[in-house]
Design brief:
Shape of chain A: globular
Family (chains A, B): Belongs to the TrpB family.
Oligomer: homodimer
Strand order of the largest sheet of chain A: 1-4-5-15-10-11-14
Enzyme class (chains A, B): lyase
Helix content of chain A: 40-55%
Pfam families (chains A, B): PALP (PF00291)
Strand content of chain A: 15-25%
EC number (chains A, B): 4.2.1.20
Largest interface: A-B, 42 and 42 residues
Cofactor (chains A, B): pyridoxal 5'-phosphate
Structural class of chain A: alpha/beta
Number of domains of chain A: 2
């Protein structure tokens, strides 16, 4: 038998020309977003003040199975795609596992992650609509970098609200976003009402994705020609990110493989939703039955310890209500080092699939995550992002189970990005000062107690 | 005609299985290295106290045209190679040039540069010889990172002397080298005689590659089972780096292209020597006649303003003497931001080829380099390393000449690495505080006055 190459690249022609919309194959759809004023399902025109028109349509499109990737975007994708599917020969050997481990590596572009897949799509639609600026939030800074790259490409001014603890942990993220002409503000800030009211309660707030979202949305709705874009959670983002899974599946078909287990890290769900899309399709249509595992930080365990409830997507409570696994929009996670996973909720699509038991979830502590990250780096020569390393931890643990049982399972995981801007976190792991934070039940109850009351629903 | 893809990847089977030794085709060889004690040509056994046996042999092998890449190394190469050859469609469009611009991108591995090509080879030979530790120097930190990765893979303890000004500009380089278990010391340091004597003269010395080399060599020769390895300048390094050019040439053949101009940045010459190898072969054997251009920093202009003379490879004057373009081993370049190019000399092979007019050289100021870097980043979505950006500057200038003349020349340049650890430098460019440093003739005379006197030779 011919040995499978270390790195499998599609040709440019094989890059998917359509995104896949998972909702079209779900037996039961996610519950609709609700307007927070009247608790009625959101109509597409309700979204226009905040979102680009085309993206608002994608957000509510539950039925179109495949959506064409505009040709101009296909061209842009070719600048950094296809991303490689990599066989982790050395990791397998170091673990002594009979499992076959593959990872889809999305970190080989300057944003350092998969975020560019959706950033460039959102900037494209904004430009096409004639918008004159955009706002967004960023946690770890990867989304902010990706969107700055995309906006610079389309000459669209951009304001980025960056979660303050990440802003401080990663001073160089500011410079890279500035290199691409992005204006970056640590959040909570005094530039918005939402930020000011959070700072009034806690002047030392380290911020959260939910809080940064409030600020960015407020800035968008109060600025002419400006809309808000978001790097995760939303249906439209999962749609764009489906290219990860679609490419992975084609690459695996080329080597006659199919995963028994698909593993991704989960914050808002953008990478996980994209990676698993075609495999979940097989599951929903009963063509195959892979296990699908979300790995989240123990410090922000929305799937494993959250409630499946309607909640705001932001801390300032100005977004529509989405039914999702949530820790409550007022929950501020401790300052763990995977800034990209510090979100109180989870993609409504993934929440529904998890609720309906199409996927599993586990939570892991950050010292265990960094242990996996360093082990992986030494054997696979790639320095992973802390977020991505949650998936590595999950994959290593499954591979070690295979070692015990002797099963040669095929494991696919998503390596979403690189850790070059996370050396402060690596340093704290290496010098032994990194701590694990696990919220107590009381901490969680506090978050749940702020969930919105909705007449007749919750 | 079929459109040329944005990214051209070889298949794994197409990755070269032999390195190419440029010396075998040179009409006149570089002058031999001299033993500094007796000024006699160095014999291979003279090198054994400092270098691994196999690498010492490669250093002096002027005749074997192709040298097999050991199978184990071929396997390692597959973890991060082939690197893509990229057609810069967007850069061409932004410049409005009829030129066709290609770049070989070596930055998609955790070392962030081409340095891993030689680092893993050197660690492999060291391990095979049963050595128990290695030492090296690093300027920008890319070589140090690459060697730390390689040594971690082979479980070889490593001490890295890092040029002090780079160490201070790039705090996170320390952490990434530590992640791969490397021990890192800012140079000049008080851990060696060479370091102490430099600090005695100038306690505030910002260091230089030449000085860090002295420290690393001293540490190697005074430690049992330890040898010294170097990331540039040497013939063996150019040999390993030939894989860059060999891959580039195969990829260009696949799309029926051949470069009219080949451009690389030049510090010690590792990337330039590797990139141009097969094209220089064509030139030496009169099969083709591409222009070959070295781009060096105006602050450290060894080719454009140096002397072609025998000199020490290090500041402490403990290495053999090599005939090369040099600014004098006592020349300490100003603290410009391309740490990887702050070397007083130039590869003897490249020096000879330049002396014999097989290649051209230009020098550029760093603000012009960063202007090119930011322009490139915005259009090609890759944040380049400052070193690599010298080649970008050269390529942009040649493409703009084509715009004037209307010629559709084919330009190939080497994009050696990424700038994620260079954000301090980018920040200084963005905020306008970056300054250009050009040594005066008097500065250079001072360096030349320290060139060694060799009876009957110079």
């Amino acid at each position: 038998m011919k040995k499978i190459p270390h790195r499998i690249y599609l040709t440019e022609d094989q890059i998917p020309k359509q995104w896949y919309n998972l909702r079209a194959d779900m037996k039961e759809l996610p519950d609709p977003m609700l307007n927070p004023q009247n608790f009625q399902p959101v109509k597409v025109e309700d979204l226009y003040p905040v979102f680009c028109t085309e993206l608002a349509k994608q957000e509510l499109d539950n039925s179109t199975r495949y959506i064409d990737i505009p040709e101009e975007l296909q061209e842009f994708y070719k600048m950094f795609r296809p991303s490689p599917l990599i066989r982790a020969y050395n990791l397998e050997k170091a673990l002594g596992t009979p499992a076959k481990i593959y990872y889809k590596f999305e970190g080989n572009n300057t944003s350092g992650s998969h975020k560019l897949n959706s950033a460039i799509a959102q900037a494209y639609y904004a430009k096409k609509q004639g918008l004159t600026s955009l706002t967004t939030e960023t946690g770890a800074g990867q989304w902010g970098t990706a969107l700055a790259e995309a906006c610079s490409y389309y000459n669209l001014p951009l304001t980025v609200y960056m979660v303050k603890c990440s802003y401080e942990q990663k001073p160089f993220r500011k410079s890279i976003i500035r290199t691409f002409d992005g204006n970056i503000i640590p959040s909570p800030s005094n530039t918005t009402n939402a930020g000011r009211s959070i700072l009034e309660i806690d002047p030392n707030s380290t911020g959260s994705l939910g809080c940064a979202i409030s600020e960015a949305v407020e800035k968008a709705v109060t600025t002419d020609g400006c809309k808000y874009v978001l790097g995760s959670v939303l249906n439209q983002v999962l749609l764009h990110q489906s290219i990860i899974g679609l490419e992975s599946k084609i690459a695996m078909e080329m080597i006659d493989e199919y995963p028994d287990i698909v593993i991704g890290c989960a914050g808002g769900g953008s990478n996980l939703g994209g990676l698993i899309a075609p495999f979940m399709q097989d599951k929903l249509t009963e063509k195959a039955n892979p296990r699908i595992i979300a790995v989240e930080p123990a410090s922000c365990p929305s799937l494993t310890r959250g409630r499946y409830a309607y909640d705001f997507c932001d801390t300032g409570k100005i977004t529509p209500l989405a039914r999702m696994y949530t820790l409550g929009s007022s929950f501020i996670p401790s300052a763990n080092h995977a800034g990209g996973l510090r979100y109180h909720g989870m993609s409504p699509i993934l929440s529904k699939l998890y609720h309906d038991e199409y996927m599993e979830a586990i939570s892991v502590e950050q010292t265990k995550v960094f242990e996996a990250a360093v082990f992986f780096a030494k054997h696979e020569t790639i320095l992973p992002a802390p977020e991505s390393s949650h998936a590595i931890r999950g994959a290593i643990d499954e591979a070690l189970k295979c070692k015990e049982t002797g099963e040669a399972k095929t494991i696919l995981f998503g390596l979403t990005g690189t850790g070059y801007f996370d050396m402060t976190a690596y340093e704290s792991y290496l010098n032994g000062s990194m701590q694990d934070y696990i919220p107590t039940d009381k901490d969680l109850e506090k978050g749940f107690s702020c969930l919105p009351k909705i007449p007749g629903i919750q």
